[in-house]
C-alpha cells in the first residue's frame, strides 16, 4: 500500500512540473520577461520550460527518480532565491512556503526510491540464498541415492541380495536400516497396520 501511495504522490508532484514547464513553453515571451525582471540574463525561458517538462515526465514515469528529485529540488530552491525572496510580502511568503513543501515532497520521492531499491536488493539476496540451499539439498539427496546404489552394488557383488525398497508416499512408508547404516524404505504390508 505504501508503494501505491508513493507512486501517486510522485505523480502529483510531477504534475506540478509538467504543467509549469508546458505553460512556460507555450508563452515564452512572458516567461522571458519574468526571468529578466528577476535580474537573470535572458534566454532561460525555453531551457527552464524544457527542463521542468522533461524532469516532471521522468519523475511521473519513475525514470531516474533519485537524480531527477535532486535536480528538481535544486531548481525549486533556486526559484525561491531568485523569484520568491521577498518574505515580507504575504504572497511571496506563501509561494516560498509552497516551494519548500515541494522540496520536501521531492526529498520523500528520493528517499522512497532508495528504500525500494534496498528492498529489491534484499529480496534478490534472499532468493539467491534459497536457491543455494535448494541446490545443496539436491546435492545431498543425490549423494544419498549414490551411496544407496553403491551399497546395493556391493551387496550384489558379494552375492548377497540387495535390500530392496520402494519409495512411495511418506504416509505409506516406514524406514529400516541396511547393513551399512543407511536408511532404506519398504512398502508397508497389510499386516503392518
UniProtKB/TrEMBL annotation:
Classification via InterPro entries: DoxX
Membrane topology type: Multi-pass membrane protein
Keywords annotated in UniProt: Coiled coil, Membrane, Transmembrane, Transmembrane helix
Cellular component per GO, a single term: membrane
Origin: domain of life: Bacteria
Coiled-coil segments: 125-159
Entries under Pfam families matching the protein: DoxX
Subcellular compartments: Membrane
Transmembrane segments: 53-83, 95-116
Protein name as annotated: DoxX family protein
Lineage start: Bacteria, Pseudomonadati, Pseudomonadota, Alphaproteobacteria, Sphingomonadales
Amino acid at each position: 500500500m505504501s508503494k501505491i501511495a508513493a507512486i501517486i504522490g510522485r505523480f502529483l508532484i510531477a504534475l506540478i512540473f509538467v504543467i509549469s514547464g508546458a505553460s512556460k513553453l507555450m508563452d515564452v515571451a512572458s516567461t522571458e520577461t519574468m526571468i529578466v525582471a528577476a535580474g537573470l540574463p535572458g534566454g532561460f525561458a525555453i531551457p527552464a520550460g524544457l527542463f521542468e517538462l522533461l524532469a516532471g515526465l521522468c519523475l511521473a514515469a519513475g525514470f531516474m527518480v533519485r537524480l531527477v528529485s535532486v535536480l528538481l529540488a535544486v531548481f525549486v530552491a533556486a526559484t525561491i532565491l531568485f523569484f520568491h525572496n521577498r518574505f515580507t510580502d504575504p504572497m511571496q511568503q506563501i509561494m516560498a512556503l509552497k516551494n519548500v513543501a515541494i522540496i520536501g515532497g521531492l526529498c520523500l520521492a528520493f528517499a522512497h526510491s532508495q528504500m525500494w531499491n534496498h528492498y529489491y536488493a534484499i529480496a534478490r539476496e534472499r532468493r539467491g540464498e534459497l536457491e543455494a540451499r535448494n541446490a545443496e539439498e539436491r546435492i545431498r539427496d543425490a549423494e544419498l541415492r549414490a551411496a544407496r546404489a553403491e551399497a546395493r552394488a556391493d551387496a550384489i557383488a558379494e552375492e548377497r541380495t540387495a535390500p530392496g525398497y520402494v519409495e512411495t508416499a511418506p504416509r505409506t512408508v516406514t524406514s529400516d536400516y541396511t547393513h551399512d547404516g543407511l536408511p532404506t524404505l519398504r512398502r508397508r504390508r497389510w499386516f503392518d497396520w
